[in-house]
Amino acid sequence: MRHFLRDDDLTPAEQAEVLDLADRLKADRYAARPLAGPQTVAVIFDKASTRTRISFAVGVADLGGNPLVIDAGSSQMGRGESVADTTRVLERMVAAIVWRTFAQSGLEEMASVSRVPVVNALSDDFHPCQLLADLQTVREHKGTLAGLTLTYVGDGANNMAHSYLLAGATAGMHVRIGAPAAYAPRADVVADAEKIAAKTGGSVAVTTEALDAAAGADVLATDTWVSMGQEDEKAERIATFGAYGISSALLAAAADDAIVLHCLPAYRGLEIAGDVMDGPLSVVWDEAENRLHAQKALLVWLLERSGRTP
Questions:
Q1: 129 an active-site residue?
Q2: ∠ CA 214-130-83 to the nearest 5 degrees?
Q3: Per-residue confidence of the chain (310 residues) as pLDDT tens digits?
Q4: I want to staple 287 with a disulfide (CB 3.0 to 4.6 A). Which of 44, 137, 228, 249 is the partner?
Q5: Does residue 223 carry a catalytic annotation?
Q6: Catalytic choice (100, 162, 174, 262)
Q7: 100 is catalytic
Q8: Catalytic residue check, 262
Q9: How far is CA 154 from CA 220, 231, 239, 275, 284, in A?
Q10: What pTM was computed for the model?
């Protein structure tokens, strides 16, 4: 059974296949109806969400299916029912399981017992669905992915930085992370990305200098400095990351035609300046829309490989 728990669960060819399908579904929204029946997809939330909730609910409906949106806190999962027991019940009733949660280990446990595809809709370690949307957006605006320089600045230890490393390397991009030394990406993720990049022609670089990371970049990306569950660290984080915001000055260091990504929600004036986010090089709204198309493509792709399509 194929699952999508982290970005490198797709080979370079498979990633391109999913992105091509995402483009087709964006051009013709109802071109694929693999869930017509309707079959049901369980979409479970341990964390608050806007874009993930809406895009998966609308996407499953577009594919002809029924989205069963579950807030874990109001289900037996919230009372401590084991992941394995919950999964064994769900897999007998649904075509796929999508889970936005905390620990990556929970997703891995779910996938180990599930006979239907499991999709990571965000964990503390990775955000691979967001990266499919990001890559689709970059390709729309740049025409290609391989050979481009993608720079992420901010918290290099968070899930977005890890996913940029893996997904960018898979796409053959030159991925740079600009982050404070105490917030560097996990060494094992960097090593995995380097192995992938060695095969795809990409590269990986990690630096503490935001301007060095941004120099000549084709794409600048960032994420909130204070993710869910880190609210108690807000003042410290704002002080630490002050030099890593995407400002007009940082954007000036990038290529003249660089584009700017932010997965949202954004704290304007912190990790991204308001004039940059609203400026002509920002593609954040295309990026937000592409969550829908990219995730639909992923579901179609996984359902085909699980033998669940008509």
A1: no
A2: 135
A3: 999 999 999 999 999 999 999 999 999 999 999 999 999 999 999 998 999 999 999 999 999 999 999 998 888 888 889 999 999 999 999 999 999 999 999 999 999 999 999 999 999 999 999 999 999 999 999 999 999 999 999 999 999 999 999 999 999 999 999 999 999 999 999 999 999 999 999 999 999 999 999 999 999 999 999 877 777 888 889 989 999 999 999 999 999 999 999 999 999 999 999 999 999 999 999 999 999 999 999 999 999 998 866 5
A4: 137
A5: yes
A6: 100
A7: yes
A8: no
A9: 11, 16, 12, 18, 17
A10: 0.96
